[in-house]
Amino acid sequence: MLVYESTKSGFLDDVVKGQLVPEIRRGYESQGIAMGGPGEVQAWKNSLQYMHTVLNGSSIPDSAGVAIEFKIPLTSRRIDFLISGYNTAAKANIAVVELKQWDGASTEVVENKDGIVKTALGGGIRETTHPSYQAVSYTQLLRDFNASIREEPIDLHPLAYLHNFESRYREIIENDIYQPYIDAAPVYIRGDTRELRSYLESRIEVGDDRESLHTLNDGKIRPAKSLQNSLVEMLDDRDEFTLIDSQKVVYERATELANRSRRDGQKRVLLVDGGPGTGKTVVAINILSELIQNNMLAQYVSKNRAPREVYKKKLRGDRLVKEIEHLFTGAGSFVETETNAIPALIADEAHRLNEESTFFGRGENQIMEIINAATFSVFFIDESQRVHIDDIGSKQEIHRHAAELGASVEELTLESQFRCNGSKGYIAWVDDVLQIRETANADGFDLDFDLRLFDSPEALHAAIEEKNRQTRVSRVVAGYCWEWKKDGRANPEVTDIKIGEYERSWNLDDSDPWAIAEGSIDQVGCIHTCQGLEFDYVGVIIGEDLKYRDGKIVVDHEERASTDRSLFGIKKMFDETPTQAAEIAEELIKNTYRTLMTRGMDGCYLYCCDEKLQAYLKTRIESVSLSS
Fold first, then answer.
1. Helix/strand number for the chain, H first, E second
2. What pLDDT does 222 receive?
3. 369, 472, 554, 625: least buried by Cβ within 10 Å?
4. What pTM does this model have?
């Protein structure tokens, strides 16, 4: 999708006449897309003035194509600047230019991480991808999914232009650890105008009057064979993605329905209900892989970044090139997507879907947007894992939107329990103990699961650290009852959680997912960084938002940290509709601990800040131990 397209001469004229930004604005409006805010508009003015300087007076033909803000299929990302034409051998070329306004003083090298730098973003110094990596990933996505790029063929030439980046900081942005990406996408900084101009002139020697840009824009979207082979190889290397029992049934039915929808164009929705540890994500990724093998465009969708990043990492292993990056996307990616634009979308953790799809309040409803965008969609759901006041994912909502959009719905259930040592009894015990629902003989199940209560958070953390040394991965998590200090989110020396002498940091801001990042065992995770994931052993610190009084489990929403947005607006709701507010607070807080307590494959270790809850859990765990 091209927001602005012209020729080199047209672009230069629009800049000189002050018409470029109005033309970009008209391009957005014509496509029914909301334009960026004042900051983005100013960025265009600044960066595009520099591109004017590069192109003005160059030998690049006036008829070379120029495009700005090209929306990449399957993503919400846009390519800043494109230039198209031919070389003297009549080879079609497009230069893909990533523009950055970074300054060198606030940019730092990040070692031991693939293609990551630190720079000033969003009011602070944050980790982000190196501009060359970003340009390379965009072109790789186009090669993987745009069949016309492969068939024509059109050569893509990615590069990054940091026009404000001072030369005295060059060694930062061109550090040796980024060399594989810089080799593929050269980086140019302030003072490199002639070098950048020469690079473009060597590739765009004959004008094409935008022909290659139109081919790119109108290209058929179909997965490349190289992507298919990579995904199969990744899955074959990992036994944890093997399907058994009801997982296989769901997988086969999903692929059958997807192929039917491809043949007849009828919208279909598959709704898959599955509790903790039933393998929802494993099934989702197998469906994704199979559809890609069948030349069908498909994506894995989740609201939370954590499961997406962890499963991408698990699939990739130690590979440097992130071939599958664009197969995993956020739930807010489909606000602007046309009806049936994507053959298949696989929504994991569907109970976490929201109405508004972005921080700016855009979008109507993520369930509706996913069903609208895809001819076939799968929703994996566990309504007992809704943990945020904005979570709207429910079977009822999915049925409602499917009916409104003319989609037929089929429901299946994942039965087998693969977490908690396969113990359905433990899940029932958790539900009974938290008084979410009464379960028969909750203290009498056969406990083939390491369930313990510790007298202190120090003892609990030490036990999980020991398990982490013995197993693949074990982690400590907690209810969100301690403030998460903004200024210390990347500093391991800053502690957030304090319980007596026990002091730990919430999981640090990092480019690697907390669940599998090095050093994570020293930190404490929250619901937002572990939901949808699993560990060998999990240690759960239950905060003061869950208590035990007069034989009842009670919740105290006021003990939640103000930095937690899960209950944002609940105080106002208590003033207006107290009964409804109390029900919501109880559901979300209990669901949070149910989710945390069911992350472990082999064991769950507990500590309660509330003394009466600690005493209650002690008797319940002792009852289980005596009956086992």
1. 21, 23
2. 74
3. 472
4. 0.76
